Amino acid sequence: MSEFLTTKELADLLRIGERKAYDLASSGQVPCVRAMGKLLFPRAEIIAWLNASRTGPQVAEPPLPPIVAGSHDPLLDWALRESGSGLATYYDGSFDGMIRLKERSAQAAALHIHEEQGFNTQTLRANLGEAPVVLFEIAQRQRGLLLAPGVTDITGFADLKGRRVILRQISAASQRLFDTQLEAHGLTRNDLDTLPVCARTEEELAIALHDNKAEAGFGLGALAGLYDLGFAPTHSERLDLAIWRRAYFDDPMLRLLSFLQSDRFSARAAEFGGYDLSGLGTIHHNGSSG
Question: Whole-model pTM above 0.85?
Answer without folding.
Answer: no
